[in-house]
Amino acid sequence: LIFNMAATTTVQLFSGKAIDMSDIAAPGEFLDGEKIMKYKMAASCVSKALQTVCEFAENNENSLLHELCSLGDDTMRIELAKIFNKGQVEKGIAYPTCVFTKNIVENYSPGPERTERLQIGDIMNITMGAHVDGYIIMGGTSIAIGTTTDREINVLQAVREAAQVCFSHLHPGKKSTEIAKAIAEAASARGCQPVAEIKCRNMKRFINSGRKEIHIRPNEAIPDFEIEDSEVYDVNIILSTDSGLPVVSELPISVFQRDVTQSFQLRMKAARAVFSEILKNHPTMPFALRQLGPKSRLGITECVSRDLVVPFPTKIEKNLDARVACFRFTVLVRAGKTSVLSEFSPTPHSNISEPVLQNYSWD
Fold this sequence. Notes:
With 363 residues, the protein is an alpha+beta fold. It is built from 6 helices and 18 strands. The strands form 5 sheets. Strands 7, 8, 9, 10, 16, 17 and 18 form a 7-stranded antiparallel β-sheet that branches. Strand 5 (123-132) and strand 6 (135-144) form a beta hairpin.
């Protein structure tokens, strides 16, 4: 976890507002109409950005991945600027746009120094997040680029079916291990594997990763817990056509997050400049190194070595022929009903059916 509860967790935001991060383990809060509205506003920004990037990729099949990442971030900023535009509410990117293909599993948000492009036959995976007043929406999808084989179509359908299964199991009293087993069974039915170490996390205001983590790949060593009323979850489903056992890649780390519990007097001028930028624009949320400017790689190194910033390594499947697909959304669990807070992008292929993630009532 990012947060160490033995240390102070009061964070000063750019607006001057101080927030207390110490409720990471507190029960889910009551969400009234105003708070739900802020979730929906953030969801609208994420949905627009997802749609914009997907449409651009479909019409520009040789796009550079870093250009798609920048397009996603820019679109979220444009949409966020339209709401609460008098500065009375904190808002911003809660997770930088990540675009990854082939055997890359997660946390890839390359900068302009990288030259990877989309190719015909790829599955393009995209994830991102935005927040309004600290109420975070995460979203993600996968689409086929040009002509694809049955294998790509199969994993695209499998990840959507697994997302549907996970959604239908998210209600108070359900065990996390039961949800993981259901996801694995849905994946296995199409010959796919849930990717290990991928988690569906509960979220709080300004906290994108709570203490409750549903590991989508069953693991008896992981403690079990029950889903509770009034919890918000970032549902992150990633499936692979291969083993689903990723390793850390040699790609340069591109996503980071400040550890709000740590402090240190940095020595290097470049590091102080980078950390000042982080405090100003990314005080609590993950960010991509490309968002800090072209000379930030040198400065971030000392920030990481002094534990001020936590790196999110890029994970890959060892098999270069593996194909990965993702589907990500945000839900609110309530007694009697589970509601989708986020919105969704268009169907990725004519042979794929989207999951029906409407508000789900249970007995």
